[in-house]
Amino acid sequence: MVLDARGGFLFSNREGAELLSRWNEARPKTGVHSMRRRPNVPPEIVAACNGLRQGGANDGSPRARPNFGGRVLVRHAKNQNLSAVVALERSSRDRRVAVFCILLQDRLKDNLVAGRRDQLALLTIAERRVAKLVADGLRNSDIAEALGKSITTVKSQLGTIFSKLDLRSRTQLAALLRSV
Description:
Elements: E1 2-4, E2 9-11, H1 14-25, H2 43-53, E3 71-75, E4 82-90, E5 98-106, H3 116-120, H4 125-135, H5 140-147, H6 151-165, H7 170-179
Antiparallel strand pairs: 1-2, 1-5, 3-4, 4-5
Helix pairs in contact: 4-6, 4-7, 5-6
């Protein structure tokens, strides 16, 4: 599902629309029933979009920077099998255009590694590259050289990966990536 920079509905594939309607089924019905082409975007997802747009600054600062490339995991309040990963991305065609990409997931339908797949979706593209090279057995210095980064950046990204995935070692990370 794709939303514009203001959280307005732009696009969804068929599976995304079905999961979105399941997500909304638990909500109280409002007065008149109408057939809409565009489904309602749940308030939890809109709140996650707003958080990324404001850069996570809730301190009342006048202008915060948007968190491009950041990801937020949102779980359904009543159905723990439904989750969404919200990401704020720049358009590949026009870098001035921002969109929210939402990946809706149903753990019962897609039960890979007991829910670890939604955690992997929280990783940024750069973190995924580092994680893959760690799983391939490379050392930090080799990863830095392969990606054109400093060793400090690689160590920082590795720490973020461990934190996001709740892991403690490179071996655990490699085992997780092999099982997915």
